[in-house]
């Protein structure tokens, strides 16, 4: 604007000068009668016009250059880009426009610049500034305006901007700086905030400035690495009051991943605190909150952190730069870091030790939907709770088991509806003479005569998801119907053992009522029924179990402690619970029987006999085991050596063959 006025002014002045000079010359010539004819006067005039124009142009050029250099010095910074004055002029010029559509701002601030100045001197600081300016200049495009507006603060005003353009510029800078840092003595670390005013996302220039400023400071907090200060002296952990939705977290991850140098390896870690609600219950909410704040602060300060967020309750997520780490090393380091966090938080809040669970997802495909990344890291976190290190990395195997589990869960309801579950019966024999004493009912998922899934695949999953109770009732009903319909079974007393999922103990009365109703419906002699309940349920759900056992005992139903010796059974348990039978777990007999297991089994059987329990051993596959158990006085045996699980019809025909023959 200013430039144009000056040029017009000079043009007008030149024309005026020329007109004045021409009229003066003409009057002088007329007075002195110098020219012989008007034609001669015109020729002289033309030559004069040319000469004056030439001289004027030269004068204008020099004056203009002089003014320009004065103006430039006023608007240029020492780094060679626009300075604060010029930036303010630019901003106020934009502010006066009718609208700010498609104006973008990118704000930058160097991290640790003061530290470099203080530690290595101003020459080093100046060089760093200049180098950063050079890097910034490389991302400029048409209509970019780069200015320095503070010591280490810069702003790019971008006209005709779009979000894509801004993102690309930001990405480009990231790559340039990464490249620079590979060889630089002082590495550049910067904070960035950018925003663009466009359709449906309109900002006035002041709001745009505010927004980029906020973004830049947020970015500064996340990018600042290797913070050595104690987190308790830092600003309060805004993140714990700053829970974000999974959707916005997903988009943040995506943005951060796309903005990070492609050569870097990234991992998403989602962590939580085991049984966090205990802290709230035991120490109150304020302690609980302090623990969360500390947890948040520690995660924020973790090495190689790109950014972290509070997802919900005690769950935090972080994106880490894991370049040069193998999966194993990463697992190890996260385990160590979690231990370190636990120590610090325990000391700071005077609480006892606790566990942090971390699920890791290595980001190999940067374009994978971030929602899937979050879900995979969460799956790994869930599994981390179950392993002793409390850290788990999502991998192919997990992926496959996830897919399998999804298939099982999705097809279970229709399989139930279509009667695809059958009971198989595995006979138990008397140790003394090998005669059948009873049978355990084992469920099978069968389609077109072939098993679809193994019980070990679907039972634990159905337990976790709560569907198992429905399946158990189906098994009980099928068994009761089989007992009531088969004449040989009716006439010969053998017991039927039924597995009970621990899930039933959550609603003990419902369980009792349903079982008794079913038994009544099929007129079952309840003395023939044994319910097998796993050892772990005895430990974890003692009270409801006591209730169930008391009622069942009154009706003649017996209780067996299943998988005895597979978990952490305590001797106290044997005294506390009124069970009738113990089923020693098959793992004792998996590879035959060695001297150590002989000692353990001997003592165990001795003790159980003294307590008056019926002793059953399952998973018997070898004669030598039978010999040993016979000697020890075990009551019943179950295993492939005697019988494999068989269908109802196979069992019925085998059973009638044995008993009808004997009777005949
Ligand atoms: P469990 O209660 O310990 O059942 C015994 C398991 O050992 C059965 O596996 C049986 O087939 C297997 N087995 C029997 N003899 C031998 C042997 O000599 N060697 C070996 N290696 N294995 C033997 P299955 O049928 O695959 O069942 C696995 C588990 O699934 C059961 O373990 C039980 O916990 C559960 N389950 C099966 N049916 C039901 C059911 O109807 N309801 C509930 N809640 N759980 C069930
Ligand atoms: Ca069992
Ligand atoms: Ca068992």
Question: What features would you describe in this structure?
Answer:
The model is unreliable at 225-238 (pLDDT under 50). Helix content is 54%, strand content 18%. The N and C termini lie far apart (120 Å). With 664 residues, it is α/β, with parallel strands linked by helices. The chain has an eight-stranded mixed β-barrel. Strands 6-7-5-8-9 form a five-stranded mixed sheet, with helices on both faces. A four-stranded antiparallel sheet has the order 2-3-1-4, with helices on both faces. It folds into four domains: 2-73; 84-226, Reverse transcriptase/Diguanylate cyclase domain (Alpha-Beta Plaits), CATH 3.30.70.270; 246-394, 2-Layer Sandwich (Alpha-Beta Plaits); 412-663, EAL domain (TIM Barrel, Alpha-Beta Barrel), CATH 3.20.20.450. The longest helix has 38 residues, at 38-75. The structure holds ligand C2E and calcium ion (2 copies). One calcium ion is lined by residues 562-563, 583, 618.
Name of the CATH class of the largest domain: Alpha Beta
Q: Given the C-alpha coordinates, what overall shape results?
A: elongated
Helical residues, percent? 40-55%
- Give the strand content: 15-25%
Please report the total strand number as a whole number: 19
Hetero groups in this structure are: ligand C2E, calcium ion
Average pLDDT score: 86
Q: In whole angstroms, how far apart are the ends?
A: 120 Å
Instruction: Note the main sheet.
Output: 8 strands, mixed, barrel
**Tally of separate helices:** 23
Strand order of the largest sheet: 10-11-13-14-15-16-17-18
Number of domains: 4
């Amino acid at each position: 604007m200013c430039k144009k006025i000056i040029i017009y002014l000079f043009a007008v002045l030149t024309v005026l000068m020329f007109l004045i000079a021409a009229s003066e010359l003409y009057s002088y010539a007329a007075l002195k009668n110098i020219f012989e004819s008007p034609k001669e006067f015109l020729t002289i005039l033309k030559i004069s016009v040319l000469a004056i124009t030439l001289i004027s142009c030269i004068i204008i050029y020099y004056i203009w250059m002089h003014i320009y250099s004065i103006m430039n010095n006023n608007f240029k910074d020492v780094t060679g880009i626009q300075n604060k004055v010029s930036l303010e002029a630019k901003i106020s010029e934009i502010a006066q426009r009718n609208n700010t559509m498609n104006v973008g701002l990118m704000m930058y601030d160097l991290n640790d610049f003061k530290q470099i100045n203080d530690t290595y001197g101003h020459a080093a600081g100046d060089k760093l500034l200049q180098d950063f300016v050079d890097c910034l200049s490389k991302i400029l495009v048409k209509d970019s305006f780069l200015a320095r507006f503070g010591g280490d603060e810069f702003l790019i005003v971008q006209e005709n901007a779009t979000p894509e353009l801004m993102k690309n510029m930001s990405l480009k800078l990231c790559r340039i700086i990464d490249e620079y840092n590979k060889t630089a003595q002082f590495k550049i670390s910067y904070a960035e905030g950018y925003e663009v005013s466009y359709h449906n996302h309109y900002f006035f220039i002041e709001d745009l400035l505010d927004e980029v400023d906020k973004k830049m400071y947020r970015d500064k907090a996340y990018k600042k690495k290797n913070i050595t200060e104690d987190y308790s002296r830092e600003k309060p952990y805004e993140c714990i009051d700053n829970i974000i939705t999974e959707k916005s977290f997903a988009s943040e991850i995506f943005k951060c991943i796309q903005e990070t140098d492609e050569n870097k390896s990234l991992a998403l870690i989602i962590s939580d605190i085991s049984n966090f609600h205990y802290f709230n219950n035991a120490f109150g909410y304020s302690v609980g909150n302090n623990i969360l704040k500390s947890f948040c602060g520690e995660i924020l300060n973790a090495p190689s952190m790109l950014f972290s967020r509070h997802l919900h309750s005690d769950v935090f997520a972080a994106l880490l730069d894991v370049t040069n780490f193998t999966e194993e090393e990463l697992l190890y380091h996260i385990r160590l870091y979690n231990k370190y966090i636990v120590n610090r938080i325990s000391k700071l809040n005077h609480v006892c030790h606790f566990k942090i669970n971390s699920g890791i997802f290595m980001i190999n495909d940067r374009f994978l939907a971030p929602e899937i990344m979050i879900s995979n890291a969460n799956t790994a976190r869930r599994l981390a709770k179950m392993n002793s290190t409390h850290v788990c990395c999502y991998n192919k195997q997990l992926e496959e088991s996830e897919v399998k589990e999804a298939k099982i869960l999705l097809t279970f309801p229709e399989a139930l509806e279509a009667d695809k579950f059958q009971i198989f019966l595995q006979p138990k024999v008397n140790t003394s003479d090998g005669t059948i004493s009873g049978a355990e009912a084992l469920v099978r998922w069968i389609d077109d005569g072939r098993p679809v899934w193994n019980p070990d695949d679907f039972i634990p999953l159905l337990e976790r998801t709560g569907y198992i109770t429905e399946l158990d009732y189906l098994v009980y009903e099928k068994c009761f119907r089989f007992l009531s319909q088969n004449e040989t079974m009716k006439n010969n007393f053998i017991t039927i053992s039924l597995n009970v999922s621990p899930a039933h103990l959550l609603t003990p009365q419902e369980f009792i009522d349903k079982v008794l109703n079913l038994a009544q419906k099929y007129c079952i002699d309840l003395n023939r029924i044994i319910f097998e309940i796993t050892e772990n349920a005895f430990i974890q759900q003692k009270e409801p179990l006591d209730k169930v056992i008391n009622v069942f005992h009154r009706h003649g139903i017996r209780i067996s402690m299943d998988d005895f010796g597979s978990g952490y059974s305590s001797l106290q348990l044997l005294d506390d619970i009124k069970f009738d039978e113990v089923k020693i777990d098959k793992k004792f007999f998996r590879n035959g029987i060695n001297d150590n297991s002989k000692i353990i089994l001997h003592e165990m059987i001795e003790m159980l006999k003294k307590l008056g329990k019926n002793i059953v051993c399952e998973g018997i596959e070898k004669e030598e085991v039978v010999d040993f158990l016979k000697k020890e006085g075990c009551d019943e045996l179950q295993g492939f050596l005697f019988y494999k699980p068989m269908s109802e019809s196979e069992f019925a025909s085998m059973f009638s063959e044995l008993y009808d023959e004997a009777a005949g």
